[in-house]
Amino acid sequence: MTVVYVVTLALLTLAGLLALVRVARGPTDLDRVVALDVLVVLVVAGVTVDIALRHESWNLALIGSVTLLGFLSAVAAARLVELRGPDRGGPDPEEQARDDSAGPASGEPPG
Amino acid sequence: MSGTVAGVATAVLMLSGASFCVLGAWGLLRFPDVPARLQAATKPQTIGLLAILAGAAPQVPLGSAAGLVLVGLLQLVTTPVLAIRVGRAAYRTGQLRRDLLLTDELLTDELGAGGPPPGQPDR
Amino acid sequence: MRRPRRLRAALTGVARRPGQVAWLWLVWVLMWGQLTGPTVVLGLLVAVAVLAAFPSPGPEPAGPGMPPRAAATGAPGRRRRWRPSKVVMLVLRLVADLIPASVGVAGQMIRLGPATPSAIIAVPLRAGEEVAYTLVAGAISLAPGVAVIHVDRDQGVFYVHALTTGGEAGVEKVRRRVDDVQRRVLAALGADPAGGRPAR
Hints:
The complex is a heterotrimer. By secondary structure, chain B is mainly alpha-helical. Chain B is built from four helices and one strand, in the order H-H-H-E-H. In chain C, helix 1 (2-15) crosses helix 3 (37-53). The longest helix of chain C is centred in the last third of the chain and has 23 residues, at 167-189. Chains B and C meet through helix 1, helix 2, helix 3, strand 1 and helix 4 of B and helix 2, helix 6, strand 1, helix 7 and strand 2 of C. Strand 1 of chain B pairs parallel with strand 1 of chain C, so a sheet runs across the interface.
């Protein structure tokens, strides 16, 4: 059974690292909001594994609250981005895609 | 409750749940724009979390399993709201790969109705 | 003697919303994890007290483009009673549908990649009340490849963002698939799937 928990946590950690790449890369703020919400869900999942292996549920209030707070924060951040209006959320995705495919020599860093 | 049936259930549920989370994070990296990444971020993660919660349920006393059900319900209830909010924010601020968009019926409808376009920059 | 009257008004308001009371009570009972007498009774009291102290606004009145039947039941002060049992059954059925849906979702994560085409598709809105189309949106959020992006009550349409791989024909297939989900949810709730706007 310990093996199961270790592998589960390892997989969750891997997912977390992938999500962190998206947080770092962006390119837009909404990308980061989305990736951070993924991280919140992964944290909740990890604490759930802890609950299972300890057979104790002291952390239930924690994961319940984190779920709600993570959701609220993501919605608030999305609202903020929406209110800021276009062109403030980050570089243009199409240009970004073209720049990415053209290679690293192609141009200035995004504003 | 640490019988073998419970153990097997926990193992299967937790490992599949974690795999779903990894698949979702993988999609998060690969998809081209915010709304697509949003789908990768919400659907597999919700499914994965529900599976992990269900996997933890046999390992704790019944009352605590009820708490796990609650967390699952909260996740199910909050995710659609989050998806529509972030999706709308992405649409309105133009964070959408228009070159990959087959059809945008929201834009056609809003322009047809004579209302203001939903705030995205002209292309 | 204003306070007793306000209290009575608040309590009648709460009595008109059994669904909300049921939900808050359920959250309480699940948190405590036991169905003992004190938990049940206290949960009910807390739920009623919270809803009386923080009343939620009623449903929005129906817009001009709403299907007539839905508009009639959407009038403020004449809310249709949603039996909580039907909602619970629907939620359970959605969770059961999760298994095939998750296979579809997993497949999409693996197959689709950086050049996936997508589409924003209009689907007629067949439900007048918020409870109904909220559940429809929830069901769609569990279906692979689609996500609700905007709901236009006045026009009776809602829009979904879909990861489409079938070109123009694929768009129509997605529209029909989402509409099917909507019809099934509404049928399970016992609401009449009203006509909505004519399909494009």
